[in-house]
Specification:
Length: 335
């Protein structure tokens, strides 16, 4: 249990499709046990009204009573609607334990990798293109097959596949691109990489687990039903995770990385991590840590309007001194 003394009671709103979702239930329990008034609102039942002056919120047509802080747990399947609701709360000045923009950035796999890469966080080599033939030709840039093909916008199920040969890669690319989905092709970090999830709350890495595939499963299917085991973070893992959460702008983030001989490569950032499994593996009351962070944000008081856009991160390193006087001809990058 947490040792931080309970603060003044506050009104806490959790945006989640159901109070019976295990992670939501944990947040409700932790909030109530710290003396707060907690309500769970299904984001798709929240209605919004704008008229150029006000940003009103209704729940099943009844005006919502004020809240001190919102914890969004927006499911991927209702991402756009849910993030509109989160922004509507932001317009009313309500502090958020994860802004809509940070959630959106974390959910776009290319965008989050661009942000990390621009700021010196190691990631698995990744390519993106719109044509199967181009992607196939670029496979060398990510170390050759096997590679992972990932849908750009993660799905709740089956958004990632391994391709072991160029033929299977080509078939997968054509099928997915043919359906109009964007995708990335990523270096498959081999079994030597340890799959680590770090929970960062309020800028601080508070817990870490190692994820292992279930017996009888190949390692690349381990995203579903992996066994978790609490681990001690290394300094480099802690630094990578904390910097990642701060770059993406998430108050609560599960930073997923593959540790290759002491070098963490961050591959995904999650804004609504599952809590009970990680609590069971670490023996920590993570839900209470999130509620404590919500208390701090609520105590800092209301914000005015939508958060300021952050300056766009430079995606290119500072220009090097040109070696040649004449501009080189454009060519496809190698290496
Ligand atoms: N570059 C990689 N190399 C090896 N394994 C990976 C790599 N990226 C992801 N994985 C494994 O595949 C799983 C799913 O990938 P992830 O990017 O988290 O997609 P999602 O969570 O959207 O399904 C991860 O949990 C990890 O175990
Ligand atoms: Mg994942």
């Amino acid at each position: 249990m947490s040792e931080v003394p309970a603060p003044l009671p506050m009104k806490l709103t959790i945006l989640s499709r159901s109070a019976s979702i295990p992670s939501t239930r944990r947040l409700v329990e932790a909030g109530r046990s710290r003396g707060h008034q907690v309500r769970v609102l299904n984001p798709v039942r929240v209605e919004m009204h704008l008229d150029g002056q006000r940003a009103n919120l209704y729940y099943r047509r009844r005006k919502l009573s004020p809240t001190d802080v919102v914890i969004p747990r927006i499911a991927q399947s209702i991402n756009n609607y849910g993030l509109a609701v989160v922004n509507q709360f932001a317009m009313g000045g309500v502090p958020l334990v994860n802004t809509a923009r940070a959630i959106a950035e974390s959910r776009n796999k290319m965008r989050s990798l661009q942000l990390l890469s621009a700021h010196g966080i190691d990631i698995p080599a990744t390519v993106m293109a719109r044509e199967a033939a181009e992607l196939k030709a670029m496979v060398g840039l990510v170390g050759g097959v096997p590679v992972l093909v990932k849908l750009l916008q993660g799905q709740e199920k089956h958004g990632v596949m391994v391709c072991e040969s160029l033929q299977s890669l080509e078939a997968a690319l054509e099928a997915i691109l043919g359906l109009g989905h964007n995708l990335i092709v990523q270096q498959y970090v081999k079994n030597t990489g340890v799959d680590v999830r770090v929970l960062v709350v309020g800028g601080r890495a508070v817990a870490a687990v190692r994820r292992r595939p279930r017996v009888g499963r190949l390692s690349y299917t381990l995203n579903r039903g992996a066994r978790l085991e609490g681990i001690q973070l290394t300094l480099s893992q802690r630094q990578a995770a904390e910097k990642t959460a701060s770059l993406v702008g998430l108050e609560v983030a599960a930073v997923d990385l593959l540790d290759v001989q002491g070098r963490p490569k961050v591959f995904e950032v999650n804004s609504s991590p599952a809590l009970p499994e990680m609590e069971a593996a670490t023996g920590l009351d993570l839900a209470s840590l999130i509620i404590e962070r919500a208390e701090v944000l609520a105590a800092d008081g209301p914000r005015v309007g939508l958060p300021e856009p952050e300056p766009v991160a430079p995606l290119l390193p500072p220009a090097e001194k040109p070696r040649r006087k004449r501009l080189p001809r454009l060519s496809v990058g190698r290496g």
